[in-house]
Amino acid sequence: MSSFTPTTRARLRRLSERGSYDRAAIFPILDAGLICHVGYLIDGQPYVTPTCYWRDGDRLYWHGSRASRMVRAVQDGAAVCLTVTHLDGVVFARSGFHSSINYRSVMAFGRAFPVDDPAAKLRALVAFSERIAPGRWPELRPTTKQELKATTVLEMEIEEASAKVRSGPPIDDEDEYDLDVWAGVLPLGMEASAPQAEAHVKPGIGIPAYLSRLRLG
Amino acid sequence: MSSFTPTTRARLRRLSERGSYDRAAIFPILDAGLICHVGYLIDGQPYVTPTCYWRDGDRLYWHGSRASRMVRAVQDGAAVCLTVTHLDGVVFARSGFHSSINYRSVMAFGRAFPVDDPAAKLRALVAFSERIAPGRWPELRPTTKQELKATTVLEMEIEEASAKVRSGPPIDDEDEYDLDVWAGVLPLGMEASAPQAEAHVKPGIGIPAYLSRLRLG
User: Minimal CA–CA distance to A90: which of B1, B212, B156?
Assistant: First the structure.
């Protein structure tokens, strides 16, 4: 896959050896997340709103109530920064200075517009459902026109994006590896635990297989 | 504890029954996170940068290289939105429309300034270390003057903040609880796995107890 071409907006300044503009680096990080943080402006004030998102090719999608402040602020093509971060561990070096975090993150820049066509909007929501629980959508009762109308689906073509990753053990100053202190990584990650059925689920309706297929982190 | 007083900036518009301006709701959410997303502006373009943070009273702290774009953009008192989000689960309702996410999030607004006094800066970095690994700091070799100089610690007094939380099972339309589909919650959370010692750790230096005391989510 090819690279996004960074302007000064997406170009990495610090620790650029940890960064990439390649789709091959960026897409897996985007596809492993459920929650992104959308940055936007209202009257010169920055806001950062967490929301679910999904990807199709070079396009990112998220949704919200038509009345949502975030939706209203971004839906007319305002500049948006959408950031996805996976925390992979705490890196304990032999000094505070070299201690760090293992992570994978993507900053994506673009402008968001609503998906207006009802059929396209529904297809986008099906894609979101499939991303979370592949195969569940046909089990659900159909979405009503009112529900579709109350929901805004936002689409943002990625104009430019960068990935930044730190992984592996701590890197200490050369003469400090023999200090008498533990050093290493405490791995962290999102984990699912046992599904909790809602109280009215009928006997005989077991836990669906798709719950174990959710891609996390 | 008292509440922050929201202006139009922090006031919740949608699903405000999920929200709070109380320190008693906001502080535990802030104290459970390692990574926040800082929103700021450069030339009218919003940016969202993930970074570690910590809290002391009404003040939030984060740090970065003196050369970091984020540090340079916010350190002179620019308007900042700092958001912390914990993903607690996926909520599977009997319709797409009522499906949701369980989460706890805080949006905090303020302006960031560098902690200039070297002693205060060092105290802040010790507090950060203590938040991650209580008791580790005295084990580390002292921070050098050069390291302290290369690091910018940012301090932001929370001017206003809101918490938003969704928890519990799906809420379906009243006549849909008897549909033949599984409904419920898939709980999600950050988990630590077995610490990985760096290759040069001396025999006899065991895994420190503070690694198991890290508060997550």
Answer: B212
